[in-house]
Amino acid sequence: MNIDAAKAALSHLDVEENPNAIRTASRDFFWYSPVLKARMDHLLADFVVRPRNEAEVIEILKTCYAHDVPVTTRGAGTGNYGQAMPMRGGCVMHLKHMDQVVSCEPGRVVVQPGCLLKDLDAHCIKECAHELRMFSSTWATATIGGFVAGGSGGVGSVTWGSLRDTGNIIRLRVVTMEEEPRVLEFTGEELARVSHAYGTNGIITEIEMPLAPAYDWVHIFVSSKDFGAAMALAEDVANEDGILVKLASVYEAPIAHSYFQRVKPHVEADDHLIGLMVAPHNMDGFQTFLARRPDCKMIYRSDDHDWAKKPGHVFEYGWNHTTLRALKVDPSITYLQVRYAYPDHKELVEKMRAMFPDGEIIQHLEAMRGGGKVAFGGLTLVKFTTEERLDEIIAMHEEAGAQIFNPHRYTLEEGGRQHTDDTQLGFKREADPKGLLNPGKMISWDDPEWDYKEMYSYPAMQKADE
């Protein structure tokens, strides 16, 4: 690895050498996990370069390839699993300048990866009265490229499913890291090669996404003393054919009272909370639907309320923002990502609640559509004590039949289904023959025989004293 030679060859580009700026660009939200924080806090790039266009991306990849310099790409760095952390130092390629909307029409948008989700939505709403089908709760700060390369679903998944579901990405334009980088375009089945691949096998330089009609969504909070009633409301409204929703979140008590500061004056410690986004033309229907549920009460609606302090977007209480809000109050909090699969999702949630009656874990659920059925993704709050106890909690979930997508691991496989993705591995062999793209994040490249019995530790990880 010849860092000096690579930096010299790229010195005419926007290269960052300020140590504080390099440290900032070398980090994401890995610190959500005390496990990852202990292992990754020291990681640091040698330099940061910010390309302005695809031609500069190609030049950076070609230069770093020639000098054996690893390249880790990043957007806003809002990912939670160390996806954008440079395991071997080298170059961090920050795509912040590549933020232009290329074209927009009803139903689709073409955009560069560095565009913020909120800016992309604003552009699409202005130009064609459409909006993104789904986005992360970090909508105000995250980029579309980071969402596609590192996300799996979010606000909108209650209707549209996950990002990797057929039709939720239209096209990706990708640059390889070879002696002579190639520019490839993927559609259809080929999208699985690089979507949610953490930039381990190609750099996304253009994205075509589907859009849906835009609405001035009504943001709603509903409270209930009965957790089962709260869970049923979220599932049932998601399945209500005549009511269009973009979010249905469930927060077990005492989340709302303990961690949602602007909601706290309006709830009691034993109140469970449901967060919803409902299309404005469906509010009459929603009120009819809610009136049939005496155990549930609407306490806030964004278009008609008497709260002295508005809570802001309800989606910023859901998904990964729930954990963030809890962390600000109690630094011992961390979380799990759990799949409660249809048709036993509600029973499985209740089983987990019964296994942890003392509040060591607290349920936070997001209604998600998958295969035409609504079930729950859990972003369960966990009161962290030790890594060993966290592993026990994970094992208890898995033994009960609740699948864990482990947010305390930095590799693709361990944060997923714990097996090799042959499609992504095959493309890495083709597109990144030296293994320089975001090294350490794909176990199957480093150690095809890994058995997942313990946490993977990348042998070439930059050491803390380097």
Can you characterise this structure?
With about 475 residues, the chain is α+β, with helices and mostly antiparallel strands. It has helices spanning about 5-10, 20-25, 35-40, 55-65, 115-130, 145-150, 155-160, 225-240, 255-260, 285-290, 320-330, 345-355, 385-400, 420-430, 445, and strands at about 15, 45-50, 70-75, 90-95, 100-105, 110, 130, 170-175, 185, 205-215, 220-225, 245-250, 270-280, 295-300, 335-340, 360, 365-370, 375-385, 405. The strands form three sheets. Strands 11, 12, 13, 14, 15, 16, 17, 18 and 19 form a nine-stranded antiparallel sheet that branches. Strands 5, 6, 7, 8, 9 and 10 form a six-stranded antiparallel sheet that branches. A four-stranded mixed sheet has the order 1-2-4-3, sandwiched between helices. A hairpin with a 2-residue loop joins strand 17 and strand 18 (about 375-385). The longest helix has 14 residues, at about 385-400. About 50% of the residues are buried.
